[in-house]
Amino acid sequence: MSVRDDTRIAPTRRLILAGAAALAAPGVARAQARFPDRPIQLVVPWPAGGSADVQLRSIGDIASRTLGQPVVIQNRPGAGGTLGPMTVAQQARPDGYTLTQMHLSVLRRPWMMRTPQWDPIADFTHIIGMTGWLFGCAVKANSPFQTWQEMIAYARANPGKLTYTTSGIGTTNHLAMESIQEKENVQLTHVPYRGSNEAVTAVIGGQVDMVCDSSTWAPFVENAQMRALSVWTAERVPRFANVPTLKELGYDLVVTSPYGVSGPKGMDEGVVRVLHDVMKAALMTPENTEVRSRFDMPLVYQDTQTYRAFIAERVEYEKAMVRRLGLTLDG
């Protein structure tokens, strides 16, 4: 066929493609306009009752009013808070109807495995950054430790005897405690639980000496069932004004572990925009602000593009830290 014949065919092909696109576009618009047309499931990878669970339930309740469909919380704890996100990445359809909390352990844990089971960037569609945790350490009210320094002195004199609990091996708070032990040259025994509420219960019940986790312990400190020894924020927390920060105690550590919401890879960006916008609006309401204030959870809002950039940067940081510290898990 000559070049001239080819030029006659090209416009025809373009017209066909343009016509196909025109026919397809209304269908896409209608599909996006219908979202959501059934309940949305938000997987919380911790037991019910913890600070993240309460905060995300609030987000779901508020978002449901705008979306016209319920946002149903499914608690799926395990594997240091990574079982739920891993299940979403591996099993959920990318249609916007299955979402998960995204937190730093999900970014870190694959590099602790001999064979990573998910890629924190490639296997998810990251939607929005929301908030973080107030972390700290607390003991039962009748504990012999009145201060952090007394606890460290006891641990130094009694290697391995003092027990502490976190929400799992390889979590941000667990690694912070490992760093503290390394700096102080002390040995504590780690007793991981599936979530901070279970950890607090264990301390109050006398099974473990100290909880080092998110602020589920805070109400128990306020009602004098527990005593806080440290908080991990940059500045002291107003309602615990007598409790020192890690920085004040001599550690170059600020731990808030910002988290957000993500879905499985391949989600339609129009659906992502709908979910981002409705969750952002929910995050900024007085209702959710009150929940975050109750747990001293800082606002760490990030839009979709900013959150994706944060995830990519943080994955490299976590990967390098795991390699530097030689952190490994079985499996």
TrEMBL record:
Keywords: Signal. CDD domains: PBP2_Bug_TTT (cd07012). Residues 1-31 form the signal peptide. Belongs to the UPF0065 (bug) family. This is Tripartite tricarboxylate transporter substrate binding protein.
